[in-house]
Structure formats: C-alpha cells, structure tokens
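Re: [ENG-882] Designed sequences occasionally contain unexpected residues at chain ends

Forwarding the minimal case from QA. Structure tokens:
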C-alpha cells in the first residue's frame, strides 16, 4: 500500500470519527442524523472501502456506534439498530471480531431476566438483527463462539410479552439450529422450557412457530427433551385452529423420520401422527395420511430384512376387510402393532379424562390404532374395552361416534370368540348403555360368516329380563340399535330361537320405552324382524311368539302394579297382537282373572280395563281366528266383570266400576257385519241372569260414567237376548224402569244415553208383554215419555219422539189415546200432531207385531 493509500484510508476513518462526535450531542435529532450520515457516507458509490478500511472504521468507532443501543431516546436506538444491521450484515465481511463487541450489548438490552429495553418495537428489531446475523454467519466457524450468547438472548426473547417477538424468536431458534447443526445440541435443551411457554399463547401464529421451534430443538436434544415435550405437543392436538394441529403432525412425522433415537420413542410419537388421520378438517387429514404413509414406507425399508418373511402376507388383503377403507401400507401396520401394547394403556386412561377435547382426540386416535393394529390389538382388548364402555356414555356426540367406529373396526379384525368372552359376561353382571354401544359396533363390524352362528347366543343374552327390562332412555336406544344390527346378521329364518329372543326384546322396548323415545322406538322394529325372519307380515310374528311371551310374563299377576315390567309387557302384547290375541285366549284369560281380581291394585285394574276396551272395540280382528271366543267372553264376564261391577265404597272402586262398564260395553257391542255372534243362546241366558241385576244397580251409581255405561250395556245385552230368543218379560220390566228413571238424571249425557238406547229395549218386546195384563206398564212408559216430550232441548224432544214411535209397536191405541189426552197440557203440540200423523201411516201388521 502506498503512502497515498494509507493517507486516504486514515482520512476515511478520521471522517467517520468526526461524524461520530455528533453522537455526544444533547440533541436527539442530531444523534439520530449522525447514523444516517455515516450510513450515507459508507454507501457512497463514489468511495470504495476495503475490508481492512471497514475493519479500521469499526475498531475506531464501535464504542460510539454500539453505545447508541443504550441511548435514552427510542428513535435514536431504532436508527442505531438500522445502522448496525446495515454495517454488520451488508458492509462488513464475515468476522467474529465484529460480533465480539455487538453481542454483549444485545445481551445487555434483551438477554437478561430484568427487562432493560422497554420498547417492544426496539426489542423486535434487536431480535431481527440477531436473526439476520445468524442467517449471514450460517454454517461458519465465526458463529460458533457465540452460540451461548444466541441461546441466552433467545431464551429470554421467546418469553417476551409482545407476540411478534415471540413469533420471530421461535423462527430464529429454527434458523440457529440450521446454522449450527453440529454444535446446537450443546445448548438445545436450554431452550425447551422457554419455548414451551409459547404453547398456550392466544395468538395461533405464535403457537405454530413454537411447535416448529420445539420440533427443531428436539432434533438436537437427548431423550429427556423428547419426554418433556410429548405431553405439551399432544395437548396442541386439541387446538381449535387446524393449522396448529397440522404443525403438530408435521413435526411428529419429521421426528419419526429423522430423530436419531426414534425407535425407542415410536410409542410416544405415534399418537401425535395418528390422531391427525381422523381430524375434522379434510386438508389436515390428507396431509397427515401422506406423512404417515411416508413414515411407514421408510420403516418398511429400514426393516426389510426383518419383515422379509411377513411382507407377502402383509400385502395380501384379508378376505373380509372394511369396504370403505384403504388398507395402510405394511410398514404403518407393523409399526403400530409393535407399539400397540405401549399405546393402549395411555388411550384407556385418557378416554376417561375430565377434559372434553382430550377425550375427543383420544377416541379419534383409537380408531386409527384399531385400523392399523388389526388382530394385533387382541392382547390389549380387555383393558381397552373397559375404557370404551365408559367413553361410549360420553356427553360429547363426537366421542360416542368415534367409539362406535372403533368398535366396528374391532369387530372386523378380532374374532367373535375373543370379544364375546369379554363383553357378554360383563353385560350379564350389570349392563349400561355403554356396553350396548360397543356391542352394537362389534356385531356390526363382524363379518356375516363369522357372526351368524352366534347371533342366537347374543340375542339370548340381551333377551334376559335383567338386561332388556330397562326404562332408561339412552339404554333403550342402544338396545334398539342392537336389535336392528342383529336382524341384519341373522339368516336362519324361524328355524331357531333367535326370532323369539329378538321379538321379546322389541316388545319389551315398546312396553317400557321412555317418553323421550316415543318417536325413536316404534313398531318399525317389528318390520325389521319380519324381513329377517322372511315371513309375510308382522301378524305372522305375533302368531309365532305371543304364546311363548305370555308364558314368560305370567308371574304373580295379582301383585302387578302399573309400573311392573311384566304388566307393561303383557298389556302391550295383548294391545298390539291383533289376531294372535284370539289364538292365545287360554293364557290371556288366566292372567286377566288374577290381574283383575277385586283385591288387585286398583290403578292396574283401571289400566287393564282400558286396554281391554280397545281390544274389544276391534273384536272383529281380535277374535277372527279364535274358535272359542264365546267361551273366553263368557268366562271373562263371569270371573272378571261380574265381581268388578259389584258396588264397593271408595273413589278408586268407583273409578274401577266406571272403567269396567266401559270395557263391558265394548265386549257386548254388536259384532261387525260378517262376524258371527260369539254367544250361544244358553250361554247368553246365564250371562243375562248375572248381568241385568248388576247393571240395574249401576244405573244408580254416583259416577255418571257408570250410569251411562250401564244403560248402554243393558241395551246391548237386551238386543243380544232378543236376537237369541232369550229376551224375557221379567228382563224387560227390570230394565225399562231403570231407563225411565234415568230420564230425570242430573247429567245431560245420561239422559241422552237413556233416551237413545230406550228404543233398543222396546223394540220387538216379548209377545206376552203386549197383553192387556201389562197395560199398566204400557201406560207408565208412555206417560213418562210424554212428560219429557216438553223438554226445552230439541235433542231430547227428537229422542223422545223416536222412543214414542217405538212404543207404538207395543200398544198403539194407548199411545194415541194418551197423546190426545195430554196434548192440551203439552207445549209440544206440533210434535204430538207429527206422531199421530206418522202412526196413521203405519200398517196394522207393523204396529201389532
């Protein structure tokens, strides 16, 4: 170098030093301007600076320049950082000499526990400066001495309250690890705890960068570091932001591909990768599947010799495999199978965790594990099922759905003989709907060829009274699901007892169903069973199994109450079975006699009479296939209705009488056209002798419903007796007088019923009753009716009009005479004239008959 060059170099240094004197000014604007001037001078394209010249300038001025980072004015410190960034990054060559002076100042400002730099923006710029330095000095020896300084700064800056600083610090940590791949391990673990503080930050971008930072740090840490971060990483799988969950999956996949001791930690990293396979977001699922396949392929290649004998088998698709699922590659399946025993205990524990998100992700993980482990999960099935029973009762529908899906997968891969020995005895001991949820999935997943021979056994378990007799709403729903799926797995028709067991469960569900399940559990279940058994209609099912079911429930009917299971099942059976009722009259009558005994529960009797009334109302169907309907009704009237109609004190007894009469009315009502009368004449006479006196006394009952029903029953019974030629004069005299009394009843409905049914009593009376001997009765009937002919109610008037016309068939002369004699004192003169006019048009034969 010539003297001129040396002088020029010195002149450059002197000039910069002169500019630096302005940094001592009291004016902050001047201090700030100095940095601008120096940068402008060093950037002058007309002036060339050698590396040595720049080094000399730095040596002479660094104490002034770096001191600007401590300036009391924020604007000056900001300008100082910009200048240092320009000088260190853009102008100066790679040399640890410069960093030696810079790092102590940066550490002083942002690398201490006590916060020195109070400006968030300045702290952010200092971290950015550090990041730029690391990038420039990446993979150089010059950066190695400052590894500790970098870590000290980043360990504090990553804990900064300012989110942008946290985010940048995490990225800088990744850059540092990349810049010093051979040395970073010496300080890597120091950064674990500081970075973990960002995992719960409210800004999702900070969480994402923290996850990537931890992923990089662990790549350079010992196994202790991995143990420390697995749990926090797993917690981020529950994050509500999809990109956070994706970051976890990406980091976990990298660990499984690149972590040097990964084989020892596969069981801890696997859940982080597999959970993403069932993520709610499709993009996350697809990426997780792609990464996981890559992991499996690498594992397969690394263990090709070990797996040589298995690979042919592993590639062969099983005979039965879920049709909607693509089978994972052999490496993925082997990797899971070899670690499943270490994963399942953790899954079993976390499925019952108090945190909802953990249960959701854990149930998703279970689906992935079941799919990959296939039959390899068998040894861990017992502990896993216990946790699944509890998780299946979770309030979160997502958990229940995943448990159902996992159960279905287990059914595909685990043999029936294995899972049935674990779940069926447990159900027998004390079932809850969690058991049934899992059982439903297992049966659904089991291939038809393997489960079909055992459907009868499973159905028999579920048909036990202690298992199927439940009133819990969720339990019933799951039981119904089990019935539906068992129907799809049964192919034996009516050859075995499966049909009866399923029938029994269905009837029990219908009988005991919770109010919440009225629309969810319906008779459509019987349609499913009909299709399964391949019979023509549901009526055939009732015909096949009603008798057996009645034999099963007839346990002490006299002690039943409305909430007794057997009572509910019995009533539901006889109400729904239609023709099967008539085919099983013997067991039905045996139960009814005891159930409707006068000493039995009154509320139960009320309910039973109500159901019987509905059955008798459609007796054309009920007794369609019954050859002994008359015998049944005869027995029922003698043994049940007659004792029930006898007056007893008390409100309950009164209600029972009213309902018994209501039921009897339907039993005595005329049969539908085309259906034969069930009573023979001799049987009818015996029934009439017992019923007429009771019905007569019931017309005085305090309950208007009993009075009204007694009148209707008497009219129906009289009609039957008349048609059977068993209608006696004494019967008529005993009955009609009670009808006439009820014309003065305080209840309008009873009066109308009496008038409405009186023509049925007075039509076709015995011939002897028309004789002169019974004239007093004729007059009494006509006088009473004419008295009520003046009623203000037009309905009453019309009914009396009809009744009077009917009496004309008994004694027309007396009727006409009475009308003429009463007309002057009656207001309803028009009605009287109308009757006379109508009677004059009648033929003599019609009247005299």
């Amino acid at each position: 170098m010539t003297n001129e060059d040396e002088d020029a170099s010195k002149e450059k240094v002197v000039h910069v030093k002169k500019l630096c004197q302005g940094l001592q000014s009291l004016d902050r604007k001047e201090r700030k301007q100095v940095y601008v001037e120096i940068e402008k001078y060093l950037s002058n394209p007309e002036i060339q600076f050698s590396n040595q010249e720049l080094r000399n300038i730095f040596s002479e001025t660094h104490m002034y320049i770096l001191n600007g980072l401590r300036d009391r004015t924020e604007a000056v410190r900001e300008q100082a950082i910009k200048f240092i960034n320009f000088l260190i990054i853009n102008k100066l060559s790679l040399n640890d000499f410069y960093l030696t002076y810079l790092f102590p100042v940066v550490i002083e400002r942002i690398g201490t526990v006590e916060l020195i730099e109070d400006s968030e923006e300045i702290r952010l710029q200092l971290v950015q400066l550090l990041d730029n330095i690391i990038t420039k000095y990446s993979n150089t020896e010059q950066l190695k001495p400052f590894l500790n300084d970098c870590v000290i700064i980043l360990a504090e800056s990553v804990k900064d309250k300012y989110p942008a600083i946290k985010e940048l610090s995490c990225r800088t940590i990744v850059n540092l690890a990349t810049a010093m791949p051979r040395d970073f391990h010496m300080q890597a673990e120091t950064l674990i705890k500081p970075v973990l503080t960002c995992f719960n930050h409210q800004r999702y971008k900070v969480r994402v960068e923290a996850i990537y930072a931890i992923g990089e740090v662990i790549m350079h840490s010992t196994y202790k570091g991995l143990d420390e971060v697995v749990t926090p990483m797993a917690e981020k799988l529950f994050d509500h932001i999809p990109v956070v969950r994706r970051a976890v999956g990406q980091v976990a996949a990298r660990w499984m591909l690149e972590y040097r001791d990964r084989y020892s930690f596969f069981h801890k990293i696997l859940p982080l990768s597999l959970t993403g396979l069932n993520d709610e977001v499709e993009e996350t699922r697809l990426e997780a599947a792609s990464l996981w396949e890559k992991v499996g392929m690498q594992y397969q290649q690394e263990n090709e010799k070990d797996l040589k004998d298995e690979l042919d088998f592993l590639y062969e698709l099983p005979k039965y495999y879920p049709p909607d699922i693509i089978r994972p590659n052999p490496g993925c399946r082997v990797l899971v199978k070899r670690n499943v025993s270490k994963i399942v205990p953790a899954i079993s524990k976390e499925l019952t965790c108090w945190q909802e998100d953990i249960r959701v992700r854990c149930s998703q993980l279970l689906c992935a594990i079941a799919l990959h482990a296939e039959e390899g999960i068998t040894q861990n099935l017992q502990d896993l099922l216990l946790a699944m029973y509890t998780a299946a009762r979770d309030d979160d529908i997502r958990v229940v759905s995943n448990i159902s899906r996992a159960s279905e997968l287990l059914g595909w891969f685990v043999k029936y003989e294995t899972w049935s020995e674990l779940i069926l005895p447990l159900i027998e001991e004390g079932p809850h709907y969690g058991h049934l949820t899992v059982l439903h999935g297992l049966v659904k997943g089991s291939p038809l060829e393997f489960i079909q021979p055992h459907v009868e056994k499973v159905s028999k378990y579920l048909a036990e009274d202690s298992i199927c007799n439940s009133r819990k709403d969720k339990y019933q729903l799951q039981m119904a699901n089990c019935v539906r799926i068992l129907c799809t797995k049964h192919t034996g028709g009516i050859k075995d007892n499966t049909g009866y067991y399923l029938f029994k469960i269905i009837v029990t569900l219908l009988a005991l169903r919770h109010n919440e399940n009225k629309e969810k559990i319906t008779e459509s279940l019987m349609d499913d069973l009909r299709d399964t058994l391949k019979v023509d209609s549901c009526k055939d099912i009732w015909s096949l199994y009603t008798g057996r079911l009645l034999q099963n429930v007839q346990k002490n009917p006299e002690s039943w109450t409305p909430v007794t299971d057997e009572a509910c099942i019995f009533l539901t059976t006889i109400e729904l079975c239609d023709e099967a009722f008539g085919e099983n009259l013997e067991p039905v009558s045996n139960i009814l006699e005891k159930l409707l005994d006068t000493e039995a529960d009154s509320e139960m009797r009320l309910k039973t009479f109500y159901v019987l009334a509905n059955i008798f109302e459609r007796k054309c169907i009920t007794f369609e296939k019954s050859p002994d309907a008359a015998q049944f009704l005869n027995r029922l009237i003698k043994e049940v209705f007659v004792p029930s109609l006898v007056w007893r004190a008390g409100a309950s007894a009164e209600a029972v009488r009213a309902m018994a009469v209501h039921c009897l009315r339907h039993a005595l009502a005329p049969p539908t056209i085309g259906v034969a009368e069930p009573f023979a004449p001799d049987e009818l006479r015996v029934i009439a002798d017992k019923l007429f006196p009771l019905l007569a006394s019931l017309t005085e009952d305090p309950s208007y419903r009993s009075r009204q029903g007694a009148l209707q029953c008497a009219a129906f019974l009289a009609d039957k007796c008349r048609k059977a030629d068993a209608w006696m004069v004494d019967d008529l005299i005993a009955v009609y007088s009670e009808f006439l009394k009820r014309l003065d009843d305080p209840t309008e409905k009873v009066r109308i019923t009496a008038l409405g049914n009186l023509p049925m009593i007075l039509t076709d009376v015995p011939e002897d009753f028309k004789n002169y001997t019974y004239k007093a009765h004729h007059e009494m009937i006509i006088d009473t009716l004419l008295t009520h002919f003046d009623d203000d109610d037009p309905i009453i008037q019309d009914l009396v009009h009809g009744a009077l016309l009917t009496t004309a068939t008994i004694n027309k002369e007396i009727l006409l005479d009475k009308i003429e004699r009463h007309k002057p004192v009656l207001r309803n003169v028009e009605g009287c004239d109308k009757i006379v006019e109508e009677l004059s048009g009648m033929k003599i034969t019609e009247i005299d008959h």
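QA comment: On inspection the terminal residues look reasonable. The radius of gyration is 49 Å. Proposing we downgrade this to a documentation issue.
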